[in-house]
Amino acid sequence: MGHNSKAKEYWKKNLQYLAILLGIWFLVSYGFGILLKDELDTIQLGGFKLGFWFAQQGSIYVFVILIFIYVRLMNRLDKKHGFDE
User: Where are the domains of the chain?
Assistant: First the structure.
């Protein structure tokens, strides 16, 4: 496998990870915080309505968790393709 095809495979996988993780973040922030807010507000979390919690804090927590997941995935991908140092 040549270096160029290896790099293309690497970036294809990287973009796939980004699309999936940003899709999850979009679902949580826009979907849970705005579109599904009324349905989620029927559930309580620590004394707060769940839709309100996602709009105020939940999407931020999920975003931070997704950053750590992305770092872990990219570290594995780097090792797989020999780009780690």
Answer: 24-85
Q: Which residues, including other chains, have CB under 8 Å from residue 64's CB and lie 6 or more apart?
A: none
* Distances 41 to 7, 36, 80 between C-alpha atoms, Å: 46, 9, 43
User: Can you state the angle between helices 59-81 and 3-26, rounded to 10 degrees?
Assistant: 170
pLDDT tens per residue, the chain (85 residues)?
A: 566 888 899 999 999 999 999 999 999 989 988 898 899 899 997 888 988 888 888 889 999 999 999 999 999 999 988 877 6
C-beta separation of 29 from 47 below 8 A: no
